[in-house]
Specification:
The protein is mainly alpha-helical. It contains 12 helices and 6 strands.
Amino acid sequence: LNQPVAEIFSQAKEGNNVYAKFHDATMQRLKKEGIKGDELEKRAASAIRHVKSKFQVLQNNYEANLARQMLVPEVDIVKARITPKKQVERGASTFIDPDKAGELQFKLMKHARDFPEDSSKVRLALTALHTGYRPVELGILEIRDLTNVKGSASSGIFIDASRTKAGGMMNIPIGPRTYALIQQQLEALKNQGVELTSRTKIFQVDKADDVITKLLKKVRVPGIRGLYANPDKTMDFITSYDFRRMYATASEALGFPEEQAGKAIGRATGKTVQAKYVAPPPGKFKEQQTLVSRTVDSYYFNQLAPFFKGQIPKGMVLDPNSDLIKIA
């Protein structure tokens, strides 16, 4: 697109279509990465469509200029290739069952017990479940981002707006189970000989989205997801981003309004004039602000009890601070 417009159309007439070359190169790159089928269509649509729109503007201007001169277009640079259709948003076509969170957690912990090298990835996945945060934000999480302010009703996570995907500050309370999972991860890093400083990455991964999704492919939970078009045909797997959808679904089922639930997962809310004046200090939360994170945290954790029935003495309950991977 850096070359003159006239040159783009002149080359296309001679069989050298710039858009077609971009399209083919993108498809070839994705195929080399081993992407196939529906996933290839989805990734290709995302990579190609926004570029196609720019070429479409050029094509429209080209045709309008010729029309004013009463001439017929000789080439259509965009129609040289069939652009993959935009994929339907998963949220509009699939449902997810938060009541399956207990089985999912238990199977993830069993996987960590059997494959200790994946323990850090499992804690990352469990933290994603319990917080509903975007994987990219968990991937960049550093020790300095944890808050434990005196007088606050809860510990929390604070990430400056410059480091978040949505470009908005994250200043969010976390539940006791989430706090315990992060502390267990820090203890594991210490045992591995990692020097803990304020800038130490908590989960020590790149591309947290891919890490979590690859892990989830190893764990099957019948009925955890399904299609609205065919509710009886359920699926037994989810991806990393489904944790965010599951959290939203759970918080609504537990009676929280959309805006309150949205704040709990770091989603930008409140487009009112008043909202821009809200400027809370990092990590300082009142009891009312912790209701969503504590309630969803407990809702997920309490689902684990039936899976540990044989390991819990009569009259005792599971402790959120326990490292359950050791007894899964």
